[in-house]
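Consider the following assembly input.
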Amino acid sequence: MARLLFFGRLGDIAGGRTRDMTVTGDVATLSILIEAIAAEDEALGAALKDKSVRYAVNEALVAGDTAVTDCDEIAFLPPVSGG
Amino acid sequence: MIRVASEPFDPAGELKAYERSCETAGAVVSFLGKVRSGSKGGAVTALELEHYPGVTEKTMAKIVTEATARWAIDEPLIIHRVGRLAPGEAIVLVAVGAAHRRDAFEAADYLMDYLKTEAMFWKKEMREDGEAWIEPRESDYNDARRWDGAKDTN
C-alpha cells in the first residue's frame, strides 16, 4: 500500500491526514493516482490538482508527473506558511 | 541549530544560551514571532501548526545553508513551534551571531523571509468566528524576492 499524506487544508478536505491506497499497475503515475482519487472524491481531487499544490514522493519534491509505486510515500503540499 | 519544538520554549533562555555559544561574535540579532491575539476575522483563540517531520527540517537546513554561504555569520539558531499554540506564545525564534551587525541583521531578515515562504509549516488560525488556514500573502513572497537581485553584494 502506498501512504498518502495530506497537509494543511488538504487534510481537512480529505477528512484525515493520512490514507493508504493500493497503487496497482494501472496507477503508474502521480497524475493517474490523482485522477483515481478525484473519481471517488471530486472536492479532494480538485483541491489536489490546484496549481498551488506541490507534490513529494518519498520526501523529495517532484516537478510534474512522475512514476509511483505501491511502496511510496506520496505527500500533497499546499502553500506553506511558517513563521 | 535547527529545532522543531512540539512544546513551548523559553525564548529568553534559548537566546542567552545562543549568545554564550557565539564566543567571537560582536553582534547577535534575534527575532521572535508570537501568536497574535486578533486578526481580521476577530479574536484568535489558538494557532495550530503542522509540519512534515524530516522534510521540514531539511527545508530549514537548506535556508540556513544559503544564509551562511551568503553572509559572514555564525551557525544561526532557529526554533520553530508546532502543535496547538495560545495567543502570546512564541512561534519562532531566529538568532544570528556575526562579527559585525550588518551581516547579522540581514541574515536574520533573510532567514525569516524564507521560513515564511519555503519552510514546510502549515498554520491554522482558530478564531471566535471559525477557523482558517493561513497562506503567505503576496507581500511575504515579495519580501523573499527582495534577496534575488542582491546576490552579488556580499
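The longest strand of chain A covers residues 2-6. Ask yourself how this observation constrains the way the partners meet.
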